Amino acid sequence: MMTEQLPLGAPFPGFSGLKGVDGKVHNAEEYAASRILVVVFSCNHCPYVQAYEKRMVALQNSYGSRGVQLVAINSNDTLNYPDDDYEGMVRRAGQEGLTFPYLRDEDQSVAEAFHASHTPEFFVFAAKPGMDRKVLVYHGKMDDNYQDPQRVKERYLQDAVDAVLAGRPVKIGETHSIGCTIKWR
User: Fold this and answer.
1) Helix spans in the chain (H)
2) I want to staple 121 with a disulfide (CB 3.0 to 4.6 A). Which of 55, 104, 110, 177 is the partner?
């Protein structure tokens, strides 16, 4: 179980060799041209993830043309949580109409590199002015109400993305992720 966090300003840890629900192997370099990369640690069985899936699809659909790419990564142990296996990911992506890559971190090394602890847990990486590499500008939850999208008052993730796109600093860089814990081996 992870206890330390990736600090704001940390460089993008990257990833390689992750199988996507599209059957292809994905690497971080595929997303290098994106202005903003949103990595979310996700899974199939967590009710918090399930509550946010439509909002994640909406975010990708609304911001994709502006250079924002959302990538979901499932790092959960599948021995004790068989619903989170690759076949379950393929089914879930189809059922929910996911419009972003959904990747399997079989050996949990990506979750470890990001110091991820929850599903869903969002990491926003963007290049600061004058920099080529992406650094962490936001880490935490999507918004302040996973249960009812109509009652959301604070849109932390969207506000961070909007700030970066407008060239402004992110006002709230960190929030506490809520959800299920990553299921470690």
Assistant:
1) 47-63, 86-96, 109-114, 156-165
2) 177
